[in-house]
């Protein structure tokens, strides 16, 4: 196995994840099979308990792993299916070491960070790198490892030490280190400053790791003199100083790397030149350029709880982008804090209330994404009602589907107090209830997580047609509550159809309102499997409906083509 390690210096938020996935894309374009590992040096065992407000979205994998959103980037860029093991955290490593310690596996030895934690990290990396993630049998050729955080952080020290040891044990030809850094510009003269990068490389070298390449983030392209300076002071050949300056969209990054011959430098370092082909990035080029040249846009109202931080819904945003591009449109996302739509807000914050409603009314479609807790729920219900009554295309994801059911039960069935037991445990009309797959009492594992099969109940529904007339679909889940099976009869009698159910028939997966141009709710999260060139069917449906093209599209694709 060949490793490309990507570390970061100076500041966080440099786009290390995008750089690392773009390196993967370029290597893949050279005919190599690529896998990836993300290391998060925090103590949480996984991202499942982390707030989207603070950390961005929790990405969900097929195997049910709740992981850092960077794994979403890898899946989308490399078109692979990762496992929960591909996200290493300090918490996971310590847990495994402590479990072994309790079992007595260390035979009375003193258990220490070095060598026990570092050995556990190395073993984990080597065994996970060998898991094929692209549907083929044998392990990949290259594993891109991204070390989260910034070099010098106390919590990443054991990882740096383990990676140093790994680089030594796998040997020179099998290890390539790319250090991502920032070149700020200061003062009126606008000089590109190299000192912060010099310091972070020095720090890395003091820890025993020398970068083979620098990937320098900057606003404007780097001057040759800046590159020379970096080369001289950072012990890296000038040709290995890559520059990632600001680009119109992130799909340009692999192209930027290719244009600077990054693949050659990495392949030479890894002794892979003989098996690699010249990079074929035609599709990427087309995608990046198409995106740049889009002129028309479509307005999408995103009504959610965590609208302050767009990363909270990163995969939803990406899925909208993929779907819009397939329709030659630019997404124009209008974020609406659900609570601003509520009646209380009309009195407390009238301006916010008025502007939220105006934004909603000006949108071509409405999306209510997933979420937990009751904040903003009343506003989401109002948004779903608005979309249903005004025949505005609507996609409700997970919580968004549960919202539609509550709204329909209240408005159409007249069950005023209909609710989810998540929000009102005492509701006389529990239309959404807690339906654990496993134990009801064991709290830790009550979430329904990962890929589950949905069977279409009839071929005669919009969603089955959008999924190319397939009779089933496998999508990823992350929820506890579900539509109460006891109310399906009355809901369907009033016109809300449950066209997709799980294999047992008791879990509602997809709802549609046939009398509406596009009113779809799904218990799963279709955004996690959307890919740049393969948009998620349901997001595509939303955008097509928003622009009046859905019917024509369905007619064109009638035979599942
Ligand atoms: N809070 C809801 C549940 O647990 C919805 C979860 C979600 O939207 N991901 O079922």
From TrEMBL:
- UniProt xrefs under HAMAP family: PyrG
Q: What is this protein called?
A: CTP synthase
Task: Give this protein's Gene Ontology molecular function annotations.
Answer: ATP binding; CTP synthase activity; identical protein binding
**Record-stated family:** Belongs to the CTP synthase family.
The opening ranks of the lineage are: Eukaryota, Viridiplantae, Streptophyta, Embryophyta, Tracheophyta
Entry EC number(s): 6.3.4.2
Q: Where is the Glutamine amidotransferase domain?
A: 310-543
Q: Which reaction does it catalyse?
A: UTP + L-glutamine + ATP + H2O = CTP + L-glutamate + ADP + phosphate + 2 H(+)
Which keywords label this protein? ATP-binding, Glutamine amidotransferase, Ligase, Nucleotide-binding, Pyrimidine biosynthesis
**Pfam entry (one):** CTP_synth_N
Source organism's superkingdom?
Eukaryota
Tell me yes or no: is Ligase among this UniProt entry's keywords.
yes
* PANTHER family from the UniProt entry: CTP SYNTHASE
Name its pathway: Pyrimidine metabolism; CTP biosynthesis via de novo pathway; CTP from UDP: step 2/2
Q: Which SUPFAM superfamilies match?
A: Class I glutamine amidotransferase-like (SSF52317), P-loop containing nucleoside triphosphate hydrolases (SSF52540)
Q: Which CDD domains match?
A: CTPS_N, GATase1_CTP_Synthase
Q: Which organism is it from?
A: Rhamnella rubrinervis
Which Gene Ontology BP annotations are present?
A: 'de novo' CTP biosynthetic process; pyrimidine nucleobase biosynthetic process
């Amino acid at each position: 196995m060949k490793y490309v390690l990507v570390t970061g210096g100076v500041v966080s938020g440099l786009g290390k994840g995008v750089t690392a996935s773009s390196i993967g894309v370029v290597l893949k374009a050279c005919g190599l099979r690529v896998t990836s590992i993300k290391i998060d040096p925090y103590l949480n065992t996984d991202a499942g308990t982390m707030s989207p407000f603070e950390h961005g979205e929790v990405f969900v994998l097929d195997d049910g792993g709740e992981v850092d959103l960077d794994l979403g980037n890898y899946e989308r860029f490399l078109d692979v299916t990762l496992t929960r093991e591909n996200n290493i955290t300090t918490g996971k490593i310590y847990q495994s070491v402590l479990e072994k310690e309790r079992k007595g596996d260390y035979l009375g030895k003193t258990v220490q960070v070095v060598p026990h934690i570092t050995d556990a990290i190395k073993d984990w990396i080597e065994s996970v790198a060998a898991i094929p993630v692209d549907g083929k049998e044998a392990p990949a050729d290259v594993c891109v490892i991204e070390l989260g955080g910034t070099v010098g952080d106390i919590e990443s020290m054991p990882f740096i030490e383990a990676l140093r040891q790994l680089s030594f044990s796998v040997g020179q030809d099998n290890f390539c280190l790319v250090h991502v850094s920032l070149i700020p510009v200061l003062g009126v003269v606008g000089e590109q400053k190299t000192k912060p990068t010099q310091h972070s490389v020095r720090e890395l070298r003091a820890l025993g790791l020398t970068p083979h390449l620098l990937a320098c983030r900057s606003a404007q392209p780097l001057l040759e003199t800046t590159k020379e300076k970096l080369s001289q002071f950072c012990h890296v050949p000038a040709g290995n100083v890559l520059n990632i300056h600001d680009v119109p969209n992130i799909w340009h990054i692999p192209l930027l790397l290719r244009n600077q011959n990054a693949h050659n430098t990495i392949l030479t370092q890894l002794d892979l030149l003989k098996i690699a082909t010249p990079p074929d990035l035609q599709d990427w080029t087309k995608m990046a350029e198409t995106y740049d040249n889009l002129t028309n846009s479509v307005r999408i109202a995103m009504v959610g709880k965590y609208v302050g931080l767009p990363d909270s819904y990163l995969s939803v945003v990406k899925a909208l982008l993929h779907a819009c591009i397939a329709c030659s449109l630019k997404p124009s996302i209008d974020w609406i804090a659900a609570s601003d739509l509520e009646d209380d807000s009309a009195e407390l914050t009238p301006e916010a209330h008025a502007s939220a409603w105006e934004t909603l009314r000006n949108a071509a479609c409405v999306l209510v994404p997933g979420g937990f807790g009751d904040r903003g729920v009343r506003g989401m219900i109002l948004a779903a009602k608005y979309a249903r009554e005004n025949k505005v295309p609507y996609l409700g994801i997970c919580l968004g589907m549960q919202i539609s059911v509550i709204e329909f039960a209240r408005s159409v069935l007249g069950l005023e107090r209909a609710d989810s037991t998540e929000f009102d445990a005492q509701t006389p009309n529990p239309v959404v209830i807690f339906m654990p797959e496993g134990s009801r009492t064991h709290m830790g594992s009550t979430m329904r997580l990962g890929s589950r099969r949905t069977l279409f109940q009839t071929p005669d529904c919009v969603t089955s047609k959008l999924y190319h007339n397939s009779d089933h679909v496998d999508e990823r889940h992350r929820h506890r509550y579900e539509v109460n099976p006891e109310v399906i009869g009355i809901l369907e009698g009033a016109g809300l159809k449950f066209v997709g159910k799980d294999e047992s028939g008791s879990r509602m997966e997809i709802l549609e309102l046939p009398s509406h141009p596009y009113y779809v709710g799904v218990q799963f999260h279709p955004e996690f499997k959307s890919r740049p060139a393969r948009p998620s069917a349901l997001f595509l449906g939303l955008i097509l409906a928003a622009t009046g093209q859905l019917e024509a599209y369905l007619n064109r694709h009638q035979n599942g083509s």
